[in-house]
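Q: Could you fold this chain for me?
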Amino acid sequence: MLSVVRVHLPSEIPIVGCEITPYVLLRLPTGVVSTDDVSEAAPADGYFMRYRIQSDRKVAICSVHPMEQATIQCLGCVKSKIPVAKSYHCSAKCFSDAWQHHRVLHERASSALNENGAEEEELFGRFGSTGSGVLSTTGSGSMSNLGQSPGLNNGPVPLYPSGTDKNSGETWYEVGRTRTYTPTADDIGHVLRFECVSVDAEKKVPVGPPTSIMTSRVIPAPTPTPRRLIQVNGDVLSHLDLDSQTSFGTFSVLSYNILADAYATSDAYSYCPTWALSWTYRRQNLMREIIGYHADIICLQEVQLNHFEDFFSPELDKHGYQALYKKRTTEVYTGAPHAIDGCATFFRRDKFSHVKKYEVEFNKAAQSLTDAIIPSTQRRVALSRLIKDNVALIAVLEAKFGNHGTDNPGKRQLLCVANTHVNVHQDLKDVKLWEVQTLLKGLEKIAVSADIPMLVCGDFNSVPGSSPHGLLAMGKVDQLHPDLAIDPLGILRPASKLTHQLPLVSAYSSFARMVGVGYDLEHQRRRMDPATNEPLFTNCTRDFTGTVDYIFYTGRE
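A: Sure. Below is the predicted structure, expressed as C-alpha cells.
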C-alpha cells in the first residue's frame, strides 16, 4: 500500500506570491521510500496521492444546508445568545423556508431568559407583515449580509467546507487541490493547512486518515525601497528614468551575483528567517528587481543550471532578452548535477544580436599551466590548488542602435562582454590573481583581433586595493604588493608579466570624476570610498561588508 512517511514545509511562514510545495516522503507499495509524487494519472500498484490545501479564513456555513456557504445571519439569534451556528443561512429563501422551526429557537431562548414582552418585540418585531418571517434585506437591521468569499487559488473548484466547528459555525475551507499552492493577499493573517492521503485508484476512496501540517500565518511580501540610479555621462548628471527606453546610441549594463539556492542555507545565513532564504521567495524578488532596471545587458553569477533553464531564461525571454549560459565545471563539484551554478548573460534582442560566444574554463588553463611549468612529481598538488571549477562567459554582440555606419557604412559596431565569478577562497590570493590575469589575456587577444571595446563584469571576490583589482583597474600589479608574497607554485613570477593593455575603467570610478551638485549625487558620494573611487560595499552580510563586484569598460585611450 502507498503511505505517507513524513511531511514538512520548506518554510513555516508562507509569503504572499511565493509558491509553497510541501516535502512529502512516501513509502511505495514496493517498500521503497521516495519523494517523487504518485499522481492519479500514474498510480503505484493501484494507489495514488490526493492533496488538499485549506485556509482558516472564517467562513460561515448554512445551518440548514451545511454544504453551502452562508450569506445572511439572523441577528435575533445573536442577541438572544442562541448558538451562532444556528443563525446562518445560505439565502433569504432558505431562511423563509426554515422560519417555523427557527422561530421556535427564538421562543425557547426568550423563555429561558424571561417572559419580557419588550424583549420579544426586540427580537421579532422587525420582521415584515407578510407573516412569512423573511428578514428584510434593506434597513430592518435584523439580517446581516455576510458577503461572498474570494475565489479559489487553483481554478474553479467548488468551495466545500472541510471541517466544521459545531459550536462556532465557522470552518476551514478548501483553497486548492494540488500539492503546490501560492498564497494570495486574501490569505494574509490566516493559517494554511496541507493535507495528503493515499487513495485507492479503483474505488476512489482514501485509505486511512490524512496526514496534515499547518503553517504559520501568511504574511505579505516585504517591499524593498526602490533604488535611484544616476546616469554617468561625462560631466553631465542626469537621472535615469527606469520606465523609458535608453537614449540613442547608449546602453545600460547590470551585473548581479544572485546567490545560488544551493548556497543560501540556514547554516551560512543563520540570521535570516528561513522563508527569506527560500528560492520561491527570492526568485520573484530577483526577477522583479532585474526587470525593473531595464538593463540592455544583464550579467548574472551563481545561476543554477535548473534555475536558468526553468526560470530565468523563459521569464527574461518574455521581456525581450536572449540568453547565453556557461555552467561551472565539475572536477571539484560534488553536488546534484542540476544544482551546479554558472554565469548567465542576457541581452535585449532589439538592441543587440549575438555574433560569437567564448567559454573560458580555468580548470583547462590550470592543466596547461602545470604541464608547462610544474615538475611532473608536483603536478597533482599544484592542480589541487588551482582547480576551482570557475568559468567565464564571453559574448561578442553587434549593436543594432547608435550612429555607427555614418563614417564607415561597412563597419559593424561590435561589443565584447565578459561575465565571470572568481569563486576562490581568500587564502588563495595567487590563484585568484592568476584567474583574473588568464581572463584578461584572453580578452586582449579578442580586442586585438577585432579592435573591439570591452565590458568586464562579475563577482571577483577581490576588494579595492587587492592585486586582482589593481590588475583590472591599473593594468598592472605593483611588484611590492603584499599579495605577491603568496605564490607557492611560482605562477606569478616574474611579477613584471602581470600586466595587460586593455584601457579598462571601473564604472564607479567614472562617477567619482563627475562634477555637479544635487541630492542624489551627494547621497551617492557618501556611499563611495574616496581612496579607491569604488563603492563602500557591494556585498553586505553579517560576516563581511565590502566591495567585490565590478563593471569595467573600455575607456578613452
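A (continued): The radius of gyration is 33 Å.
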